[in-house]
Design goal:
The chain is an alpha/beta fold and 329 residues long. It is built from 9 helices and 13 strands.
Length: 329
């Protein structure tokens, strides 16, 4: 029955996508093609978003004479928040847009707009990167996060996505006991996803309780937001007996990078984003192995172009892996 439910959801999703033009499938295939063979085809699309930005937004108009991306200023959340309307493309002011809320981890929380093609690319990212770690469209999963009116999904969406929203506002023993009971009772749950802090609490509590893989049926654990500590990652693998991967993403862009299974580095999503790693105290490119600021240009959000967006996260750029993918730690 579980497999039938998963299959129905998977085929149902692709059927709806096909009725609307099949763009999500197209974007998944495009992402796969570019990343699996390290195909660098983003330069033309990068030039397109830069031209679009200088011709349709007030903020970027002064940079119409640019020769390359380094002619653009580096921006932060505080700047975007203060000049919000100037980042809006004139071509999209009367079009249907998707609203996302930034994480607020740096204290600068605000809403950002994405055009519908960008939104479909984010969905394609989710499908592609989940597939890379063995989680398939239609699988049932539990998502640990603080759920509130601004992000809570409707019951219809919850059913369609095969999602269980588990609120982790309180990571008390009672709350973790409820999670244990849920995972024990529902053997159709294949994935546990959530922020690193929540998964760390699960790891230590479940290990203390002596729980073991034979008690659960998970196939993958996916961590997001902060980096998952090695000890917590090891405990999750011990308790649940399945791969544990970390994903690096934010609400304003999408999935920026993800760890391959059994790895401690992240493969950058160079198909959808242009990345720069800059020194901590200057805007010069940081050498490999040196802590650096991660600066991102979103190649496909035409509604509100973000050029050279400082994520305010510190990373270390490593040498490319054996397949030629760019990687960070």
């Amino acid at each position: 029955m579980t497999m039938f439910s998963e299959t129905i959801r998977r085929y149902g999703f692709w059927f709806v996508d096909a009725l609307s033009g099949g763009q999500v499938r197209q974007y998944v295939l495009d992402l796969e093609k570019k990343l699996q063979v390290n195909l660098d085809t983003s330069s033309g699309d990068l030039r397109n978003i830069l031209n679009h930005a200088v011709n349709t937004t007030e903020f970027y108009k002064p940079f119409r004479g640019f020769s390359n991306i380094t002619d653009f200023p580096i921006i932060k959340k505080s700047l975007i928040k203060g000049k919000y309307d100037q980042f809006m493309s004139s071509e999209y002011k009367n079009k249907r847009l998707h609203k996302v809320s930034t994480s607020g981890s740096t204290g600068e929380r605000f809403f950002l707009l994405q055009d519908m093609q960008k939104r479909k690319r984010v969905i394609a990212e989710l499908i592609y990167f989940y597939e890379q770690c063995g989680f398939h469209l239609g699988y049932k999963y539990v998502y640990l996060r603080i759920w509130h009116r601004g992000n809570k999904k409707s019951k219809l969406v919850e059913i369609a996505e095969n999602l269980i929203m588990f609120d982790c506002s309180s990571l008390s023993d009672a709350s973790l006991d409820r999670l244990y009971e849920l995972l024990m009772k529902d053997r159709s749950i294949k994935c546990l996803a959530g922020y690193a802090t929540s998964l760390k609490a699960v790891a230590f509590y479940f290990e203390k309780k002596g729980y073991n893989p034979g008690m659960f049926n998970l196939e993958i654990i996916s961590s997001g937001a902060e980096s998952l500590e090695p000890q917590a990652k090891a405990l999750l693998k011990k308790v649940f007996g399945c791969p544990v991967i970390s994903r690096y993403s934010n609400n304003e862009n999408g999935i920026l990078a993800q760890q391959p299974i059994d790895s401690d580095y992240f493969i950058l999503n160079t198909a959808h984003y242009f990345f720069e790693t800059l020194r901590l105290d200057t805007d010069e490119t940081a050498p490999y192995g040196e802590p650096a600021r991660l600066v991102v240009t979103d190649i496909y959000n035409y509604a509100m172009p973000l050029i050279r967006y400082d994520t305010e996260d510190i990373v270390i750029m490593g040498n490319m892996d054996v397949q030629g993918h760019k990687k960070i730690f």
